[in-house]
Amino acid sequence: MSRSLLVTGAAGFIGANFVHYWRRQHPQDRIVAYDALTYAGNRASLAGLEGTEGFHFVHADICDYDQVLATLAEFRVDTLVHFAAESHVDRSITGPDAFIETNVVGTHTLLKAAREHWLSGGSSSPHRFHHVSTDEVYGSLLPDAPGFHEAQKYEPNSPYSASKAASDHLVRAYLHTYGLQVTTSNCSNNYGPYHFPEKLIPLCLTNILRGLPLPVYGDGSNIRDWLYVEDHCRGIEKVLLSGAVGETYNIGGNNEWNNLDIVNLLCDQMDARFKADAELAGRFPDSPCASGGSAKALITFVEDRAGHDWRYAIDASRISTELGYQPAETFETGLGKTLDWYLANEDWWRPLL
């Protein structure tokens, strides 16, 4: 049976990866990519799909109720996968209003339109509203505490995580109040291709190539569970195909690393690439690797972020046990794939800088 998917935030990092993944795995399905193309939305991330049969792009804001409803109706959407979000914690500290508007008001607008489209007049056509959230809604973990589980108390500590927590609650409310068929997934830190170069890994990766400082907050001891983006897409696929309506599934990578170790590993992998490929020195002459030095010379410790959560970790046992999900990549293999993608796609990331 073919589906008609509306993917919000489809030109963003995880959304674009999901669209490419779903297209490969389910070529018979229609995909409607919906994106406002704000600073982190890049239509170039959907290159190769534009103009192909069964793929449609809608340039619009999720806060535009009439446009959302019209899109749901025009393409007879039966599955909505909601990635669209403001997601950079630093930006939420300096400018929280955009996070409330997109993450809270935008999610509510989608829910209202979905309810009208699927449940109006007492009808209830088969449908699914899948909401993509974050482990940051749970707050911060102590060093020896077990990973976040689905029944974890919400304790958001930044405007970003608070706005995502609010959106999670709205999704739950539309299930229990109106009967909207929803699922939610909370993921750990993603990395991989098409990642806007403001987050730790793509920022450090592109800075190495340009010979710029690699900023590490505090002493670099903050710990995150890292999830290769295609493994995340695979987890969402499991939830859409087999997940129970109304349930939440945590998707993690089983990869806890502190920030300084991540940067050191990235430097080691980049050093090795330059030693193995003499052409890289000509392409990126400003990198210390080009002259035989190490990228580690660029590591720079900076003042810690306000309210910086110390540790996140996901307990992914539920999605593993119930839906058979396992990440395919280790952090080392996933990071290597990410690095190779950025080296091969300079024309994608260079204009963003």
Automatic annotation (TrEMBL):
CDD domains the UniProt entry points to: dTDP_GD_SDR_e
One of the GO biological process terms: nucleotide-sugar metabolic process
UniProt key word Coiled coil: no
Residue span, NAD(P)-binding domain: 6-337
Key words, A-Z: Lyase, NAD
Enzyme Commission number(s) from the entry: 4.2.1.46
InterPro entries xrefs: dTDP_Gluc_deHydtase, NAD(P)-bd_dom, NAD(P)-bd_dom_sf
MF annotations from Gene Ontology: dTDP-glucose 4,6-dehydratase activity
Names of the cofactor(s): NAD(+)
Swiss-Prot/TrEMBL catalytic activity: dTDP-alpha-D-glucose = dTDP-4-dehydro-6-deoxy-alpha-D-glucose + H2O
Claim: DNA-binding is one of the keywords in the record: no
Family label: Belongs to the NAD(P)-dependent epimerase/dehydratase family. dTDP-glucose dehydratase subfamily.
The protein's name: dTDP-glucose 4,6-dehydratase
